[in-house]
């Protein structure tokens, strides 16, 4: 993530909820199916989607509020509606590098699930609708899944010092995956944990 000059003055940005954009914004990252290839259970579906144009799964917009002695940051994520095979579009998911770093997520549009899990596999899933706000304590990896038909947009507040660790989730994923069954989202044990 980009570093910015220290600014001790108040800063406001203006959020456009429907598409998760805000102004001004320091950095935008787009993740496609190929960036998340190892995260989905159905590898044949991953290959087919990549061949047919590698669709975008989500966008993250970031603003670091770095002052002389504080380091809050804002991240707004917009996850498109869609599926890989029967598994819904989702974020990669990560642990924080610093083990005393929590985070607050606020779902401002859409519906889905926030999965949280410790390195020992202690798992909690929070069902999400518009205006659900969740505190993610330190030590819990976190991933958001869009189970709805419109873009899911959520606002994250965290410290820049939190950092990101993707490795353990890339290898083992979360204990459960969320798939569509009979037109509805269903939580099933991940093949990587079976
Ligand atoms: C940062 C915060 C979010 C995520 C974003 C994308 O700590 O949790 O801004 O970075 O939702 O998820 P991921 O797993 O691709 O970083
Ligand atoms: Zn985080």
Q: Would you mind describing this structure in some detail?
A:
- With 194 residues, the protein is mainly beta.
- It has a single domain (14-193), classed as Jelly Rolls, CATH 2.60.120.
- Helix content is 8%, strand content 44%.
- It contains 2 helices and 15 strands.
- It has helices at 43-51, 167-172; strands at residues 14-16, 21-23, 27-32, 56-66, 71-79, 83-84, 87-88, 103-109, 112-117, 123-128, 133-136, 141-146, 152-159, 176-181, 184-189.
- A 6-stranded antiparallel sheet has the order 3-4-5-13-8-11, with no helix packed on it. Strands 10-9-12 form a 3-stranded antiparallel sheet, with no helix packed on it. Strands 1-2 form a two-stranded antiparallel ribbon.
- Strand 14 and strand 15 (184-189) form a beta hairpin.
- The longest helix has 9 residues, at 43-51.
- The protein is globular, with a radius of gyration of 17 Å.
- Zinc ion is lined by residues 94, 96, 103, 142, 158.
Summarize the model shown.
With 194 residues, the protein is mainly beta. Helices cover 8% and strands 44% of the residues.
Itemize the secondary structure elements and their pairings:
Elements: E1 14-16, E2 21-23, E3 27-32, H1 43-51, E4 56-66, E5 71-79, E6 83-84, E7 87-88, E8 103-109, E9 112-117, E10 123-128, E11 133-136, E12 141-146, E13 152-159, H2 167-172, E14 176-181, E15 184-189
Antiparallel strand pairs: 1-2, 3-4, 4-5, 5-13, 6-7, 8-11, 8-13, 9-10, 9-12, 14-15
The protein binds D-sorbitol-6-phosphate and zinc ion (ZN).
Zinc ion (ZN) binds next to loops.
